[in-house]
Amino acid sequence: MRIRSKQRELRSKPALSPAQKASSFGVLSALALALSWAESFLAPLLNLPMGVKPGLSNIAVMIASATLGLPAGLAVAAAKAMFAGVTRGLTAMLLSAAGGLFSALLVGFLLRCGKRASRFPISETGIGMLGGVTHNLCQLGVAALLTRTAGIYWMAPLLIVSGLLCGAVTGTLVKLLRKKVLDGFRAP
């Protein structure tokens, strides 16, 4: 019952104009780049293990997918990967692209399924967790290809746990921020 009233509420609000969509995309892309840059300093401060980052920049990707659609989420993830390439090199770009694009695809798919179902099958927190694990495992696969060794898979348990934990934080923040961000995009 509560979910149907939320769906009616979302349908009753006017859609974003093309200009609002373009500016929203720009803001979310800039947010993803700023958070990606900040994460590179945050991980050592939190004393996180090698290869583990909080994934805060994925908030922008999830919000873009949820508010503007999957193509926008993929474009924000691609912009984030290009930024990683410019600031940290080709390897960082490949890792960021693999993790970001595949997790954005999963997030977009899950959000789309949730919109079509009468009951949302999984919360934003759950989507964030699945996206975090997908992101980490895709990056691990690319790292194995780049290093030409399967020995790197010993990191999988750590990356799965960190993907679940960081994804839960990311998904919860998206859940708290999504409506406010969308309302802000609609403001005159």
The share of residues in extended strands comes to under 5%
* Rg for CA atoms: 17 Å
C-alpha termini separation: 31 Å
Q: Can you name the CATH architecture? A: Orthogonal Bundle
CATH fold call: Arp2/3 complex 21 kDa subunit ARPC3
- Stretches where pLDDT is under 50 for at least 5 consecutive residues are none
* CATH level-1 class: Mainly Alpha
Mean pLDDT: 85
- How many structural units, i.e. domains? 1
Helix content: over 70%
What's this model, at a glance?
By secondary structure, this protein is an all-alpha fold.
Give a written overview of the molecule.
The chain is mainly α. It has a single domain (17-186), classed as Arp2/3 complex 21 kDa subunit ARPC3. It is 80% helix and 0% strand. The protein contains 7 helices and no strands. It has helices at residues 2-12, 18-45, 58-67, 70-88, 90-116, 124-147, 156-186. Helix 2 packs antiparallel against helix 3 and helix 3 packs across helix 7.
Could you list some keywords that capture this structure?
188 residues; mainly alpha; Arp2/3 complex 21 kDa subunit ARPC3; 7 helices; 0% strand; globular
